[in-house]
Every structure is written in structure tokens, then in C-alpha cells.
Structure to design on (399 residues):
């Protein structure tokens, strides 16, 4: 991302892959990319990309670029290097390459330094699922399911409908809709147009509350800015290993493989311990989910009970997080 | 997300984008030695500079397909 104009290329910087279709005047035809929590490649398919390429070629013939208020103008250059916290992040690195997620981390740290950070700012670029829509990975503006009692369900959208516009922005892809949702205020009404059986229909998504948040943001690299971490690495026990140790299937069983946090050592955790409860939670977690738990639910200076299985003994421990972030 | 560092006026935009281009492509830049691009092998000739890609799009009359990918 070195030198890239962030005013122009605005996207979910936590992603590992994102694409844009543009003309030679910095204007956009469509955005392609994005993911759901459960799957990094949920909406990246050869079929959908080829389909979109054909659509873009048609749009390009008449220069039918996006013109709504959701489009960045790119008139000012804002590079990652200009983010005040970026220099400190790069100082320790041999390779000065700025990754996409570095941009978001630097932005969030800057907001922290200004005292303007809130955890919900980690949840950028909400997906159609955030408003109750499941969309087809191949024809990405086609709705395959609508979550009951969601804003989408209340708007009248049904499975099989094809979403064509949201507040004046053309929707061809998952990424197009995500762009609109990113710019939609937390409490707002988002007007949508959709096709059903050859007819064009309209509806409104009434948005309020914490609709931008998702249940498992553990894939987000930027999440570590949000709160303290456990200071360890580990791996999930196999079903056979769990069974051998008397841990139920579906229950937490993470073997500690490496400890880097001073607070983790002070808590008494040891390599080889098996974490079976975290803050009273005993459900199965990946190591990323284990890390995201305190990042989302604890503050620096807080304490968190942990139970580990050491040999045949269950050992209760207390992890006291540092009072401030430790680099 | 609200970003509050000061914008640079448009007039400097080209220079900085060109600088960015040189960082990516440049054989004379120290920074370029640190930021090694990992070219993708295959039948597509990817262009690793946005200004150059835009110029090529202008000459050919074709749209641009701009990809950001993680190289880790």
C-alpha cells in the first residue's frame, strides 16, 4: 500500500484481496471482494469474476461509471505514510512494505491517540449479512435467503430477488453493497431497489443499533488494536485428544504452544497447558477466537479467569492484562 | 471511520503518485530495494503501477482491473 491514495482506494483493509473495475479517470464501475466471518473466500469465485468482467465491458462502452455520493473523489492524496502512527509502526521493520491491514491498524491507533477510538470502529465494511441478506456467491446481487426479523425482512425483500441499487448506488456485487453499508450511518434508512419477476420494486432498510457488528471478527488483523491479548499461541486439540483427556466435543480445548506475554507468564500459564475455560466460557474456540475474546470484551488493566488442564489437574489462574498496550 | 490527518492538495498528487510508481518500479530507488514486489507468474502481464495502468487504459480504451492482494 506504499504511496497508494487512500482517498481513492477505500476498502476493507482487513481483507487479503480486493479488486476494483475503473476507467482511466479514477472512476469506478464495480467493486469485487469482501468476505463473511466464516469464510475468507465466500464471495471470490472465478464464475462471478468472469461474469462481472463481462458486465463491466458493457458498462465501459457507455462509460456508465458509478456517480452516487458513495463514490470517493480521490481529489486529495492521503497516503498510508501520512497517517501519524504509521512511521512508528514501520520503524521496527526491515521490510518497509505497508500491508493493507497496516493502514487500518494505523488509522485506529491514530484515533486511539486522539481519544476518539471505540471498539465498534473495527467493524468496517459491513456485509449484506449484517442487514439480513444472504447473497449468491456467483450472482452476487441475487438474494438467496433473508434472515427473519432482520432489516431486510422488514423491507419486503425476499429470496430470489435481485438487488439492483441502494440509495442510488448500482449494486452488482457483494463489494458494491458493502461499500454502501460502510458509508451508511448507524441509525438510518437505506432505500433499496430490487427486481422480482421482471418488476422493479422498492423498499427501505431501517437500520439502528449495533447492526455493523458481527459475531466472529477474529479474522480481522486490526482487531488487536481494540483490546488486550492473551500473549500466547496455541492449537486446538483433535477430537481424539479431547476424548482422551475427557474434554467434551464442542468444548474448549486449546494447547498452549508458545508464550510471549509477560502478563501471561505472571498468570502462571505454561507451555503444554490446555485451556479449558476462558472467563467462564467453555465453548470451542480457534486460537484466533481465543485472542479476539479479550480484545472485544476486556480493557487494559482488567483481569480474566482462566482454567487450564495441567496433566490431570484443572488449575484455575487469573490473567491480569497490562494497564496499557505493550509493543 | 474518521480520518483526520491533513490532506495534500491535488497539485502534489501526481508527483506523489509518480513517486509511488518509482518506488514500485524503480531500479534507482533505495526504497524500492526494500519493498520487493512478488510478480505473479502466468499469462497475464500485470502492471505494478497505478499511473502506468491508467495510462495504458487511456491508450487502449479499455477499463482497468485494479487488484490489491496480500503478499505475505
Amino acid at each position: 500500500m506504499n504511496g497508494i491514495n487512500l482517498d481513492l482506494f477505500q476498502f476493507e483493509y482487513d481483507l487479503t484481496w480486493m479488486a476494483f473495475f475503473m476507467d482511466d479517470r479514477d472512476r469506478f464501475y464495480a467493486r469485487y471482494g469482501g468476505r463473511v466471518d466464516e469464510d475468507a473466500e465466500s464471495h471470490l469465485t472465478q464464475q462471478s469474476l468472469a461474469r462481472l468482467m463481462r458486465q463491466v465491458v458493457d458498462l465501459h462502452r457507455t462509460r456508465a461509471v458509478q456517480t452516487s455520493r458513495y463514490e470517493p473523489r480521490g481529489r486529495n492524496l492521503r497516503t498510508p505514510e501520512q497517517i501519524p502512527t504509521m512511521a512508528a509502526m514501520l520503524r521496527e521493520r526491515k521490510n518497509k512494505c505497508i500491508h493493507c491491514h497496516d493502514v487500518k491498524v494505523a488509522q485506529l491507533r491514530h484515533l486511539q491517540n486522539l481519544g476518539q477510538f471505540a471498539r465498534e470502529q473495527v467493524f468496517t465494511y459491513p456485509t449484506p449479512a449484517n442487514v439480513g441478506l444472504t447473497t449468491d456467491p456467483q450472482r452476487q446481487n441475487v438474494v438467496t435467503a433473508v434472515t427473519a426479523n432482520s432489516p431486510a425482512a422488514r423491507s419486503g425483500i425476499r429470496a430470489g430477488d435481485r438487488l439492483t441499487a441502494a440509495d442510488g448506488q448500482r449494486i452488482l456485487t457483494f463489494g458494491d453493497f458493502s461499500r454502501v453499508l460502510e458509508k451508511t450511518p448507524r441509525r438510518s434508512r437505506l432505500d433499496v431497489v430490487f427486481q422480482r419477476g421482471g418488476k422493479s420494486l422498492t423498499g427501505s432498510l431501517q437500520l439502528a443499533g449495533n447492526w455493523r457488528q458481527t459475531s466472529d471478527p477474529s479474522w480481522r488483523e486490526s482487531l488487536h488494536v481494540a483490546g488486550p491479548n492473551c500473549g500466547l499461541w496455541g492449537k486446538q486439540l483433535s477430537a481424539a485428544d479431547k476424548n482422551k483427556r475427557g474434554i467434551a466435543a464442542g468444548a474448549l480445548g486449546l494447547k498452549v504452544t508458545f508464550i510471549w506475554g509477560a502478563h501471561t507468564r505472571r498468570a502462571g500459564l505454561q507451555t503444554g497447558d490446555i485451556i479449558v475455560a476462558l472467563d467462564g466460557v467453555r465453548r470451542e474456540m480457534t486460537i484466533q477466537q481465543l485472542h479476539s475474546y479479550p480484545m472485544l470484551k476486556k480493557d487494559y488493566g482488567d483481569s480474566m479467569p482462566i482454567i487450564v488442564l495441567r496433566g490431570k489437574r484443572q488449575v484455575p489462574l487469573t490473567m491480569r492484562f497490562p494497564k496499557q498496550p505493550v509493543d | 471511520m474518521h480520518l483526520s490527518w491533513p490532506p495534500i492538495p491535488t497539485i502534489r498528487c501526481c508527483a506523489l503518485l509518480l513517486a509511488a510508481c518509482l518506488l514500485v518500479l524503480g531500479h534507482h530507488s533505495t526504497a524500492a530495494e526494500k519493498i520487493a514486489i512478488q510478480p505473479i507468474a502466468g499469462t497475464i502481464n500485470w502492471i505494478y503501477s497505478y499511473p502506468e495502468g491508467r495510462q495504458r487504459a487511456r491508450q487502449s480504451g479499455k477499463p482497468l482491473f485494479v487488484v490489491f492482494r496480500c503478499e505475505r
